[in-house]
């Protein structure tokens, strides 16, 4: 993954931010959305593109754009930097290989007879703890 190339390929969209900020919110477009086109990127090789497309499928639009939004700051520049950082973090975490899981041999499955016997013993123990209610005598 070539982060410098990816940063060059980013496109940005700005809009008015929501939330507090007084008149600044109503006048200035400080919300920044960083857009990254996964399929045509030169910053990712073909294998990396396939991995990103699979792992971030829910975050990639129909047009093939991966986006990250920032509207925390009151300035467009700092929101732009935060959006870039979010997008790069998304890509980096998607490209971390998942650890291989060890297969458990089938022979290690618990013995069902032994388990049933242990349950019966436990049941008897608990039944012995119950309070014995004497039968009512009738006149």
Structural class: alpha+beta
List the helices and strands in order: HEHEHEHH
Q: Strands of the biggest beta sheet: in what spatial order?
A: 1-2-3
Number of helices: 5
Number of beta strands: 3
pLDDT averaged over residues: 84
- Radius of gyration (Å): 30 Å
Helical fraction: 40-55%
Largest sheet: 3 strands, antiparallel
- For the record, what CATH class of the domain at 3-94 applies? Alpha Beta
What spatial form do the alpha-carbon principal axes imply?
Answer: elongated
CATH architecture of the domain at 3-94: 2-Layer Sandwich
What separation lies between the terminal Cα atoms?
A: 91 Å
Poorly predicted spans: none
CATH fold label of the domain at 3-94? Double Stranded RNA Binding Domain
Q: Strand portion, in percent?
A: 5-15%
Biased composition (Polar residues): 15-26
GO molecular function, one term: ribosome binding
Region (Disordered): 1-26, 100-139
Pfam family, one: RF-1
Describe this structure in words.
The protein has 139 residues and is of the alpha+beta class. The chain has a domain at 3-94: Double Stranded RNA Binding Domain. Helices cover 42% and strands 13% of the residues. The chain contains 5 helices and 3 strands. The chain has helices spanning 3-9, 23-27, 46-55, 76-94, 112-129, and strands spanning 11-15, 31-37, 65-70. It has a 3-stranded antiparallel sheet with strand order 1-2-3. The longest helix has 19 residues, at 76-94. The protein is elongated and about 90 Å long. The chain starts with a helix and ends in a 10-residue tail after the last helix. The mean pLDDT is 84.
């Amino acid at each position: 993954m070539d982060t410098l190339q990816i940063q060059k390929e980013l496109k940005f969209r700005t809009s008015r931010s929501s939330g507090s900020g007084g008149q600044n919110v109503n006048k200035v477009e400080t919300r920044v959305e960083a857009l990254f086109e996964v399929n045509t990127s030169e910053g990712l090789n073909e294998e990396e593109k396939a991995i990103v497309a699979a792992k971030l499928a829910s975050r990639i639009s129909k047009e093939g754009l991966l986006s990250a939004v920032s509207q925390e700051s009151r300035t467009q520049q700092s929101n732009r930097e935060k959006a870039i950082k979010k997008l790069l973090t998304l890509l980096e975490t998607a490209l971390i290989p998942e650890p291989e899981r060890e297969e458990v041999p089938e022979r290690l499955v618990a013995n069902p007879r032994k388990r049933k016997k242990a349950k019966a013993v436990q049941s008897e123990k608990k039944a012995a703890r119950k309070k014995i209610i004497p039968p009512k005598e009738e006149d």
